[in-house]
Design a protein that fits this description.
The complex is a heterodimer of chains A (about 180) and B (about 120).
Chain A: H1 3-24, H2 29-45, H3 56-73, H4 75-80, H5 83-101, H6 106-116, H7 120-131, H8 136-143, H9 147-167
Chain B: H1 3-21, H2 25-30, H3 39-61, H4 67-74, H5 81-87, H6 100-114
Classes of the chains: A mainly alpha (about 180), B mainly alpha (about 120).
């Protein structure tokens, strides 16, 4: 696959990739954009190569996930250089601005918060299945875990989030 | 409505909300990459700092030799050296002590007892 083809594929999946990047970095828009940029550059530079063993979308999501994990690991180093402090300060202002625009849908923010309370693996598998419409098997491929492990995370996450929905007053229409 | 359907609806709402905030693809690809200094440069700088610290610690640990004090030590003399000189004088053995008379008396007594 040459660069123009890669670029076209990346552009096609860009909106869903952004959603996935957001999910990988606790919904911080600035961080999500940085992760996405690093992942795209990795792919366009040839540092991450698509071998065709999985679907392009699955492979792309795996690259984004790995990039986000690398960024988290480098977090302490950024703190040492004090870059992290400034970035975090800038990042703090972003969700507030975003929050203002989303005031009408407070329930969405609540849902996001409830999702963020789940363990990372559960969040990931639920996002991949319900938001990205992947199968549990494809989600396992993106997450780099076995199908059995992905199923367990999926069931536990679904159960916990379902319970929360039933109890939440903001989701009355979902109550029995 | 089962849990799957409920969750799917919530996630779809989330997806629609996120779509409004998605940055343009061209912007993300063109955005300037943060400049990171070459990692070897950092490693070399770190190593240089460690070496400098080791050198400083090593220099501070070396004992300071005071040559003037060394010379003075060879010339040192104990204040009691004079006593040793007195003991070697020829008249030293002729000096009597207050207890010498006791020894003489005891010798006489012993001689009488023998007789």
């Amino acid at each position: 696959m040459d660069e123009s083809e890669l670029r076209a594929q990346l552009e096609q999946f860009h909106p869903v990739s952004y959603g996935w990047a957001l999910s990988c970095c606790s919904c911080n828009p600035m961080e999500a954009e940085d992760i996405l940029q690093t992942a795209y550059l990795k792919i366009l530079d040839g540092r991450a190569q698509f071998d065709g063993r999985a679907a392009f979308k699955t492979w792309l999501f795996a690259v984004i996930r790995r990039t986000a994990a690398d960024e988290r690991r480098r977090g302490w180093l950024r703190w040492v250089r004090l870059d992290g402090y400034w970035q975090e300060r800038d990042g703090d202002t972003q969700p507030a601005a975003r929050g203002d625009a989303l005031e009408q849908s407070e329930r969405l923010n609540l849902f996001r918060t409830a999702l963020a309370r789940l363990p990372r693996r559960q969040q990931e598998v639920l996002h991949l299945v319900f938001y990205q419409d992947l199968t549990v098997e494809e989600a396992a491929g993106v997450m780099g875990v076995s199908l059995g492990s992905a199923r367990t995370h999926y069931e536990r996450g679904k159960h916990r989030l379902g319970d929360w929905l039933k109890q939440s007053e903001h989701f009355d229409e979902y109550r029995h | 409505m089962n849990t799957d359907t409920k969750l799917r609806q919530c996630f779809q709402e989330l997806r629609s909300a996120d779509a409004q905030w998605t940055p343009l693809f061209s912007r993300v690809v063109r955005a300037p990459v943060p400049v990171f200094t070459f990692p070897w440069l950092r490693l070399a700088a770190g190593a240089a700092v460690v070496v400098a610290l080791l050198v400083v610690v090593r220099i501070n640990r070396q004992p300071v030799v005071d040559t003037q004090q060394w010379v003075a030590l060879s010339n040192w003399q104990a204040t009691t050296d004079e006593l040793l000189t007195v003991a070697n004088t020829p008249w030293g053995s002729t000096l009597s002590t207050p207890t010498d008379s006791w020894i003489e008396n005891s010798n006489q007594t012993n001689q009488k007892e023998t007789l």
